[in-house]
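It is worth pausing here to work through a concrete case rather than discussing structure prediction in the abstract. The textbook approach is simple: state the sequence, then state the predicted structure, then interpret. We follow exactly that order.
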Amino acid sequence: MPIFRNAQFEISIAKPSGLPAPNGPEIAFAGRSNAGKSSAINTLAGHVRLAYVSKTPGRTQLINFFRLNCGAVLVDLPGYGYAAVPEKVRRDWGALIEVYLKERESLIGLVLMMDSRHPMTELDRQMIGWFAPSGRPIHVLLTKSDKLSRGPAKATLLAVRKELSAYGPQLTVQLFSSLKKTGVEECEAIVTDWLGLGEPKTGDVVDSSATGAAQTGAAETKTPG
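Step two, the predicted structure:
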């Protein structure tokens, strides 16, 4: 069974002090507030309302934990970078995300959502650059790829790959569409490999047509928020 299917909600927390005791490997999902993160989680889980989808970006202010059948935990982080959110709220979100990403020992990798029409914003670069030195993997989902025709979508994938390729195999990237449900298998394969549940691999990540993954990486900078 796909690892994200039948995920079950466990707890929401608003402050670092509320973080539950680690209970299994955790995969964090992050992204700008309008990058389609909640829709991507719902698509991966095969559940229309597992993660809350708001028409107002920046509304979700909590870290949400979901238990997967394999014993791992999907962790939905607050979206970052929405300008209409009050400055104090942005600071609180930034502190919450920072504590979790920096101090959570059970965190094994980060799935980072970017809108394929506007990838690699400054805040995305900050997030990658801040988290990458931890040595844990990052997988980039270029979401809303259905908004692009095949040619521009492939060009976007290649451009992101080129920008990040100098930093090694720690990062991977693919196209993803919640609307058309494309890219689900690629994402599942990457995370399954992180968890040590997949078949042994040799060589580079395989690029599966326009939705394939690629090697990427990052440089140091500050925490976004």
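Step three, interpretation. The longest strand covers residues 107-115. The CA atoms of residues 164 and 216 lie 5 Å apart.
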